């Protein structure tokens, strides 16, 4: 799933390449991706792109009359930029393409596709005058890149859920997903199962530093990269996430995994849990 650093890099790419251009045409290949119908997507036609923003993991393209095309890429969505877009309108319901934005005469100018792989569709797009009318934007907590140590302590006070859950709760802290939460906890040497509200001052110090360092470094690696290379750049910077069975780059212990119904997280026992492997419910069921 694209998280804060990748979305920030995509927004930066749009600022550099889309702002100042005119939306000539929007093609909708999947009607289910549009979560609003008024204003219609045709309201974007003829409008100059004036800004690109990020709200947590949402991407926001603003045009001259105050309309915003807001996109959440979900688990398997992506933005694919092209210097020349195909002119013929795409057929609906065919392949991964959901929406196409022409920022020049079709067949002559640049633009981008919003695509989504797989059969489980979560990619969402809204056309609104105020992004705050979108429920998933309105509920966002403070952005993870701007959160202070004091804010973090206040947000975590009296919370009883596991740290992994807190870090990925967008209403608590915006922008962190499954991958970077694993990386942050590993850098902070904290267990994913630690109780959020019981972290002491030293642990909060380490967590805050790890959060800012991990995300800032990831943004620095990602911004300026071609959109097609961002996924590979993300993988190259990960130390524990998606590295099950490989040695931890810090201590050499084997990176372990805990799996749930539709996702998994990775951690290092030596660095994070005092050498004790966490219970994996999937493995426990197999052993019964």
Automatic annotation (TrEMBL):
Residues 2-94 form the Formamidopyrimidine-DNA glycosylase catalytic domain. Gene3D superfamilies: 1.10.8.50, MutM-like, N-terminal (3.20.190.10). It comes from the Bacteria. It catalyses: Hydrolysis of DNA containing ring-opened 7-methylguanine residues, releasing 2,6-diamino-4-hydroxy-5-(N-methyl)formamidopyrimidine. Its cofactor is Zn(2+). Keywords: DNA damage, DNA repair, DNA-binding, Glycosidase, Hydrolase, Lyase, Metal-binding, Multifunctional enzyme, Zinc, Zinc-finger. Residues 239-273 form the FPG-type domain. InterPro entries: FPG_cat, FPG_N, H2TH_FPG, Ribosomal_uS13-like_H2TH, Znf_DNA_glyclase/AP_lyase, Znf_FPG/IleRS. Pfam families: Fapy_DNA_glyco, H2TH, zf-FPG_IleRS. Belongs to the FPG family. This is Formamidopyrimidine-DNA glycosylase. It comes from Lentzea cavernae.
């Amino acid at each position: 799933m694209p998280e804060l650093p990748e979305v920030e890099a995509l927004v930066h790419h749009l600022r550099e390449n889309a702002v100042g251009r005119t939306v000539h045409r929007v093609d909708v290949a999947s009607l289910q991706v549009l979560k609003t119908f008024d204003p219609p997507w045709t309201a974007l036609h003829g409008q100059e792109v004036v800004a690109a923003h990020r709200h947590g993991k949402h991407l926001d393209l603003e045009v001259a009359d105050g309309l915003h095309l807001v996109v959440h890429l979900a688990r398997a969505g992506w933005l694919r930029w092209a210097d020349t877009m195909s002119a013929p309108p795409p057929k609906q319901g065919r392949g991964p393409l959901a929406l196409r934005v022409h920022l020049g005469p079709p067949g002559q100018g640049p633009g981008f596709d919003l695509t989504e792989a797989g059969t489980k569709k979560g990619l969402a797009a809204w056309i609104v005058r105020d992004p705050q009318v979108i429920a998933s934007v309105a509920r966002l907590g403070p952005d993870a890149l701007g959160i202070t140590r004091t804010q973090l302590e206040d947000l975590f006070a009296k919370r009883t859920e596991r740290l992994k859950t807190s870090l990925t709760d967008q209403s608590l802290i915006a922008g962190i997903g499954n991958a970077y939460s694993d990386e942050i906890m590993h850098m902070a040497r904290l267990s994913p199962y630690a109780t959020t509200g019981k972290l002491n001052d030293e642990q909060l110090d380490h967590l805050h530093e790890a959060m800012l360092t991990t995300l800032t470094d990831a943004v620095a690696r990602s911004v300026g990269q071609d959109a097609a290379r961002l996924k590979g750049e993300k993988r190259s910077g990960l130390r524990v996430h998606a590295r099950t069975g490989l040695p931890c780059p810090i201590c050499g212990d084997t990176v372990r995994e805990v799996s749930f119904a539709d996702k998994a997280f990775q951690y290092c026992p030596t660095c994070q849990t005092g050498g004790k492997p966490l219970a994996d419910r999937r493995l426990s069921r197999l052993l019964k």
